[in-house]
Amino acid sequence: MTHSRISPEDKRYPAGKTFAWGLQHVLTMYGGIIAPPLIIGSAAGLSAAQIGMLVTAALFVSGCATLLQSLGMPGFGSRLPLVQGVSFASVATLTGIASGDGGLPMVFGAVIASALIGLLIAPYFAQIIRFFPPVVTGTVITAIGLSLMPVAARWAMGGNAHAADWGAPGNIGLAALTLAAILLLNKVGNASLKRLSVLLAIVIGTLFAVISGRADFSGVLQGDYLALPGLFSFGLPTFDLAAILSMLLIVLVLLTETTAGLIAIGEIVETEVDSKRIARGLRADMLTSALAPLFNSFPQSAFAQNIGLVAMTGIRSRFVVAAGGAILIVLGLLPVMGRIVASIPVPVLGGAGVVLFGTVAASGIRTLAKVDYKENMNLVIVATSLAFGMIPLVMPGFYDQFPGWVQTLFHSGISAACLVSVSLNTLFNPLKPKVAAARQP
Description:
The protein is mostly helical.
């Protein structure tokens, strides 16, 4: 009797381990998921209580989006271990809209309209998978990892550039302690400890911060314990053509970044990611983005932070990520739990981020090692694309004098590297027609 092979992403684990590993995913991306609502809410002139509502809404919607992406339903969801969250790529545009006369209702209207258009074009956008041979996928995955390193550095320095202890040796030392704990657990631990190394290191780092007076949990019990998401709490959406067009460009960036995330996680999981699977992933992305404003939240996209966790721990099950999505929903419904997680010192997350984000870049380098560089332009393609991907990181104001659409497309190192590598590969390595290949004996 033959048994069909179970794909790595479909493997199931005991509930205890599944939720413990899912919690690792939540802690890895928590800082990134709450930043957009904090920034946009401040730009809209909201009160602290209203901004808190945006944060819990972001957690709730991101949890629902992660469940749809990982578990899937007919036509929607890649069924891959990919975490969804509020996209940072949309923050600049949404902040500009929110600070104007239209406020959040205009923001939500622009998000709904642009995401619905994105939902319609998703199947066509997914066809670009044929433009992603290893020379492109390796470059994009490497760029994803390198683009995240400034995030880890900022977290390690304290997270707030205006704080008095920004970059203090104590903050960086706390990040170093967490990093050392991850490395030690991976060196001397058994398989179970290695798979939980990030979670355990964060606990160790937090305990040390409490002992040294660098963590404050005093505000955990202040505020609501239960908060159900409201519908259109800031008023019905308004639809402004200029705002919709500006967000439509962001949607193209989100589609590009999520496609890159799907390809990256496919490489790491070692499972096939074809145009149909990408289309389902993009549809899930756009559907949850279109529905997010109903619950007072913003566009969703794949979170690159968590790709590194999958690569480092070797836990490639989508059900683990789904458990993380369920935890996000609980955090959105129980603000008290969210306040506990929010009290974890940012430098602790920075220490974990160094190895997680570096792992993504290393995965890309591993893919690039398989590329043939003899008598072709592949080395130039990789070099030029990575250079464009690094420009927004080393010189953030590089495109400030360019038109807005150029700034939108190239402000992200991931989208810049993706666009340049696909363009150069198409130019120097033209696609071979399948018909010609079929005629060969």
